[in-house]
Queue: 4 jobs
Job 1
Amino acid sequence: MIREVILGGPPHRPPQRKVVTTRNVRRHAARAIVDRLGYDVPEAIISCDRDPDTAGAVLLHVNSGGNAIECENALRSAGYRVEPGGPPPGAYGVQLRVLPGGEAG
């Protein structure tokens, strides 16, 4: 309160980085797939787990390139950073690495 009076406003708070959770990534991915196909396909998301090699990241593994594109677009629109996740387990489908939004690094 005193800071506001003396300096003329509340303290500046930098924007919060979006925290990546498996629950939210799965939710955005499932919605993107439903929007693409017009119906729910639970098996289209093969896995959605924490990335053991990248702190704060989630690996999303989906069953097709078309679903991966839609998931990537939806996640980017939601403020996440998305990049290729490397070869998927079993060489089936597409794997994406989902990270907090902001500058690439």
Note: The CA atoms of residues 71 and 101 lie 15 Å apart.
Job 2
Amino acid sequence: MTVREHLRESLRHLSGHLWVKPPTGPPPLEQIEALLPLLDAAVLLQPEAERVIRLCTGDGDLDTKQIAERGSAVRIGYWRLRRDLPALPGPAGLKDDIRRLLLYHEWYIHDAVAIACAPAQTLDLVAHRAHLAGGLGAPAEHLRQIRQDLLWEHAELSADGDDRPT
């Protein structure tokens, strides 16, 4: 299910006759405003994550201490975002998609650093290293697309003024 579909489902749930009863959560605009800073931070970590992956998959002598330090900083960044996500309001399905993407980013960096810092480079590790050289790929683009869709929805809801039906 796309971000837009998650949000549309949430909007349908929060609109119309359901507003007669007190809503169970904040309105969609507030949900988007709560999720956007987390997504901004996740997207801002992506260039450093890609740099770490390039260091890990590069040829020649690797400075494993530098790789481990930079990789740990990026992994911890994604871990913190994933840790903070459940406390934020938003559609459960959308938050689950974001959580999975953050976990993917975290573990991709983990694998790249583990392979780069391995004491011996076996044929399997060399093959896996070559696979990792492609970078974060489609999941990174998916995370950026979720952020872009939320920005679009935020602009649309903000232009409408108050997003609660009367």
Note: Confidence is low (pLDDT under 50) at residues 11-22.
Job 3
Amino acid sequence: MSTSRAQSLAASLQQRSAEYDRRLSQIDDELGELNRLAAAAGKRRGDKKPGGDDTQKYRLGSIFSVLSSRFIELDDLALLGLLADAHYTITLLHFSTIDDGASLLDVFNQLLLDPILARKFRDEGAKLRWEWNRALYVSEVESFAQSKAAQNPKAAWRRKPPTRGQIYLISEAVRAFDFDPPNVSTRGEAFEWLRKVGGNPRFAKKEES
């Protein structure tokens, strides 16, 4: 065997070994997550059916790591927008160059390398994601805003730490609409920030800039 061929074979074996190590790591992660879900089975509202909603979400999400080693590069909001617009996306796929052995996820990755397309789909995905959080926003902000407690600027609740719902909504708004993270440390500050930007985040973003 020639030296060059031996080196090529060694490099190929090293690449395969690295790929197997990556897959084993993913399997270990999945087993760990499944163990965690099994330990928590029956303790959440999502466990009304065998497996529960969390298990189903995890399994659906793991599809991406199975289909492409580049799944971590995907912007979930851009992918959400892309998947939501079937007519436009199918038209784009019709004109796409698809390599032999490529998965549909690889094609999506390729489409989202175009900054104009990526921006368009991310904007749509951000809008859909925020609408999905609408019920929580109504509960944390709109409904509470009608209460007597909300009308009192000196109420004790305003000095308490932000609620988990407020923290989640703020993080979602910052991520989806590219807001600067707000400097809020109390429930009242979080409430006022969400009330200011949450009704129409895209409009609020324009005002901010």
Note: Residues 122 and 153 are 37 Å apart (CA to CA).
Job 4
Amino acid sequence: MKLSRVVDVLLILFVGYLAIIRFKEGMTGIGIMFTALAFVYLVTFIVRIKNEREKTDNK
């Protein structure tokens, strides 16, 4: 696994953790923001993996 993938996964997990903590503390607005941010990171991660696979398949 490349370092950038590891960093992406750790970032997704960290932002997800922040979202859970904010929901538990009753800060739903900030929790929703962190949830949306984690979702955007997840989608970006999936698209990046898909693009890398397409590049290796085309070679």
Note: The chain is about 90% helix and 0% strand.
